[in-house]
Structure formats: C-alpha cells, structure tokens
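Input record (one chain):
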Amino acid sequence: MGKCPFCGGEGFEDTLLYGGSCPKCFGEIPGEEAATDPGEQVKAQQAKSDNRRVLLRTMIPFVLAIPAIGMLFLMAIGFVIWNRNPTVETMVFDDVEEFDYAIVSAPDQPDPEPQQVATAPGPRNTAPRNVQKVDAMGVPVVEVKSSAGGIDFGGIGVTASRDGEALSDPTQIRNMLQQKMQAFGRQLKQCYDKRLKTRSDLEGRWKASFVVLETGYPDQVRFKGADMSDSEFEQCMVETVRKWKFSRISRPQPVEKNWRFRN
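The corresponding structure, as predicted from the sequence alone:
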C-alpha cells in the first residue's frame, strides 16, 4: 500500500501512481507516471532569459553608435576651438600729444568765418589735390581730397591699404593708427578752445579709448580725464572721434591714446 511522501498516509495508490493532491495534507504528489512539467519556476526563468535576450538585441544599435557620437562631439569641439577668434590686444600709444592754448577769444565775439583757398581744379581721375583750409582760430587744417571726391583727414604720407585691401599686419595697423591720430588730434584742440572760453581752468591729460572697426570707423568711444573731468568737453571729443575715418583693417582693434591740453 502506498504512502503519502508528505504526511505518511496510506491507501493512495492511484494518487501516487498518476499524481494528485493528498486528501489528508493536501500535498501535491507528482506521481510516477505523470507527464513531465517543468513547473512555474522553470517557466519564469525561461521567460526572463528571453526578455534579456530581446533587450540585448535592441541595445546593439545604440552601443555601436556610441563611438560615432563621441567622434562627432570631438569634431564639434575642435571646430569651435579652431575657428575661435584670437584675442586682440589693445594698442596703447604711450606718447602724450600736447596742445597749448595761446589766445583766448572773448566770449561775446563771434568766431571768424573759415577761409578756404583752393587750387585750380584739375582733370578727373588725376592724383589727389591739396585743399588748404584754416579753422576758426586761424590754424591750418590739412585735408587731402582724392579723385573720388572723398576727404581723408589723415594727411600726406599716411599708411594706406593697397587697392582698398584691409590691413592685417599689426605693425602696419599700428603705424596707420599713429599717423592718423596725429593728423586727427588738432580737431580735439578745437573742442578744447571752445570749452576754454567758459571754463578758464580747464587743462590736464585725457585718455581716449575706442575700437576701430573693420570699416575704419571708431566705436565705443570714451574719454576719461586723469587730472580733472568735464562732461561737456569730453562729449565734444567723443563726437569728434566718432567722425574719424581710419584705413580698413581685417579685424576690430582696441586703441588707447593720451592727449594733454594746457592753458
């Protein structure tokens, strides 16, 4: 007589042979001739293995794309670094250009009209001709009128680009700025002469800072007094410098220059 392997009960021959539940302990007897069944645990393990295999197959394209993405990222960084504009240092002109005021006009006297003496007009498309001009104080102002009709206040002998080509060599740019500012400086003296009529104690050193753009025009113009400050005088100089025209350059160039005005 067969016995239950769990509770030891007897009289369960059919259950022991074909499998089933023990009527006493309700234990599940597999049975000697029952069909082979891996059970729920084996099925769960198989399903988990299948899911892992599917996940790995799905991730294969992403894993293969990681090196390509990294290469593109490095190429982008290299492109940015390679094309980054180098920092342009400010060109500082340490020499201090001085202007003395010799004669002060009375406040109630109007300024004399400028006199202009011009040479006889030459044929078109010829070499530049000089136009002699004097300012309100009788100071000669040198202007060079080109054949195209424009006026270059830079004076004769100023370094210029060939065939309109922008200057790129730092030495050439510095020489051009130096010569141009020497010619332009007399215009600042006119601001000083005008302001001195209402403020007789105005004198000292002023530092100009501006950026010459690729077109040759100044930008971000500022004047700061080292010894004293006068907003009206400084604003006049700012407006004057904004009208200056330098030669064309290949990149914006910061500039610092000192001017001294003495009464």
